[in-house]
Design a protein that fits this description.
single chain, 315 residues, mainly alpha
């Protein structure tokens, strides 16, 4: 017996449903395969990135590790070739010699430590204050020549501090500040890098916050330190790291002649520059001088990456 038209239509609908289900199953299988491929490729990419960052981290931490290891080596191990990355006979002689030599100088060691701490604190606070105020004016205040000043700051990033030594000496000599604390402090009060970072960070703050503060009657100085700077805390913490590191390494050079005004890095460099027998003292000095910047960096490291990521948003 032949099938009726209704039954034929039902069979055709059933076949269409089956084909549609089969098609959907095939599409799902394709999607599953693609997801597996993506997950495997992303996992492989994560592994590659992890290996790369691990190698990069080891490469960056190796100088610190090597300096610490060398500071505990006796003299006969310092000149072994090929150099060993471990200590056979660890000793503290290098550190004891460093303090013995430093304590036998004309000026007590405590005086050099005071000079370094005093100069570092004054330079760091002054640098933060000047950079924040100048960056706020350049980023949020409109005045003739603002763009030219910003371009000068960016151009100044190309030059190192050594290119300014002669001019700094002439200025300090003209102002009769040679052989004074001012000769150590004033050249480092303002730096183009710190000013650039703060200006880039403040530029990302919306102008509506500043306008609201002006409506409330706040002046520029109050807007800067109570509205803008609290919202630029990551940049200011990065500025703190850079300013402290540069200030801690300040040496008088040709600007300081009195022993009472010399800083700790200057004296430690003189102590370590006494021939082959003092090479262990050199590494011990390096380890001693790197401790304060490392402590400051560990305290403020969480804000560094955020500032570096945002430093190129605006020009």
């Amino acid at each position: 017996m032949g099938l009726s038209e209704k039954e034929k239509k039902k069979q055709e609908k059933a076949l269409k449903r089956l084909r549609k289900r089969q098609k959907n199953m095939d599409i799902n299988k394709v999607h599953v395969k693609k997801r597996k491929r993506k997950s495997s490729s992303s996992l492989a990419g994560d592994i590659v990135i992890f290996i790369f960052l691990t190698l990069l981290g080891l490469f960056m931490i190796f100088p610190l590790y090597y300096a610490v290891i060398q500071s505990f080596k006796p003299v006969h191990e310092l000149f072994v070739f090929p150099p060993k990355l471990y200590v056979l006979e660890p000793t503290l002689v290098n550190y004891s010699d460093m303090f013995k030599v430093a304590s036998s100088l004309w000026v007590p060691l405590s005086r050099y430590i005071f000079n370094s701490v005093f100069v570092t604190i004054v330079i760091t606070i002054s640098n933060i204050f000047v950079s924040c105020c100048a960056a706020f004016v350049l980023a949020k205040c409109k005045f003739p020549g603002a763009k030219a000043i910003n371009q000068i700051i960016v151009t100044a990033l190309l030059f190192t501090s050594s290119a300014l030594w002669i001019m700094q000496f002439l200025v300090m000599a003209t102002l009769n500040m040679i052989d004074t604390y001012w000769a150590l402090i004033l050249p480092s009060v303002a730096t183009s890098m710190n000013l650039f970072l703060m200006r880039q960070s403040i530029s990302t703050i919306h102008d509506s916050m500043i306008e609201a503060a002006r409506v409330d009657g706040a002046g520029l100085f109050r807007i800067c330190w109570q509205v803008v700077i609290p919202n630029s805390k990551p940049a200011m913490m990065t500025l703190l790291i850079f300013a402290f590191q540069a200030a801690w390494q300040v040496q008088g050079g040709s600007l300081i002649y009195s022993e009472e005004l010399k800083t700790l890095p200057t004296i430690m460099q003189q102590v370590s520059a006494s021939g082959i027998a003092r090479q262990g003292v050199t590494f011990a000095t390096a380890v001693l001088l790197m401790i304060p910047p490392l402590v400051i960096f560990m305290v403020a490291q969480g804000n560094v990456m955020e500032t570096m990521a945002n430093s190129g948003i605006k020009d």
